[in-house]
Amino acid sequence: MSNKTQQTTNDAQLYGRLLSYAFKYKWSLVLSFLGFVVYSLGNVLLADLTQFLLDSLGGQQMMSLGFVAQASQWIWPPGDKTATDYARIAVPIAAVVLSLGRALGFFAGSYFMNKVARSVVHTVRTELFGALVRAPKVHLDQFSTGELLSKVTFNVEQVSGAASDALKTLLREGLTIIALVSYMLYLNWELTAVFFVVAPAIGMVVHVVGKHFRRYSRRIQDSMGSVTEVTAESLAGLDDVRIYGATAQVSERFESASAFNKQQSLKLAFVQAAS
């Protein structure tokens, strides 16, 4: 097996293990899923509301046939009002209701997913600390104190947070895309077919960007270990550093480690902004 294939397998196994922690909190995941469903439907219905608004501005005599318009007419029959007069009242009310529903859905989806994320971070961090205190000294001696501290305080936060963020993005954006594409197919399937033509190119871009994300994230984790190591060693031997006049050397080591961390973080930020 090539290194590339093995690395891909390891990434998939790692993500699968992290998801197994997340699935322990199934009710929070269900509530998050329902919240993002409401959020996605809100996006579609707000887009449909635009048709209602444009039809009324165009002075059409017949009522709009959009989802929002039909729902409004079912809840509040127009009676003898013209399409324009009815829309003047119905459109603002529908916009407020849909915006509130969309906001509540986003809140519920984000909150319960963050609840899962913090729970996963707590569980993984606790298990890692338990493994460290039980691990043989020979194994621990392979790592510096700073690297071990970084693994518990920083790496767990980054890896577990990335898993929950990926799941949140998958649910929120995935449901939104499904809802919007379905609505587009309902309106005009020929025009929607263009989306499926460019979808493979978009998928390729996402794949390439994902590789860069993983690369820079690993470098950031390693650099944080170096920063923590230099800090821990310097503070533990601060008296010796001052006695032997090594303040400049220690400061240079710390600046170098911190600069590398900054460089990798900026590269990750560049890829995120470009994507």
Summarize the entry for a quick read:
Helices cover 88% and strands 0% of the residues.
Structure description:
- By secondary structure, the protein is an all-alpha fold.
- The protein folds into 2 domains: 17-187; 194-275.
- It is built from 9 helices and no strands.
- The chain has helices at 3-22, 26-57, 67-75, 83-134, 137-140, 145-187, 189-236, 238-243, 247-274.
- Helix 2 (26-57) packs antiparallel against helix 4 and helix 2 packs parallel to helix 6 (145-187).
- The longest helix is centred in the middle third of the chain and has 52 residues, at 83-134.
- It starts with a helix and ends with a helix.
- The mean pLDDT is 78.
Tell me the domain tally: 2
User: Structural class given helices, strands, pairing?
Assistant: mainly alpha
Task: Give a count of the beta strands, DSSP E runs of length 2 or more.
Answer: 0
Shape: elongated
Mean pLDDT: 78
List the helices and strands and how they pair.
Layout: H1 3-22, H2 26-57, H3 67-75, H4 83-134, H5 137-140, H6 145-187, H7 189-236, H8 238-243, H9 247-274
Please supply descriptive tags for the structure shown above.
275 residues, mainly alpha, 9 helices
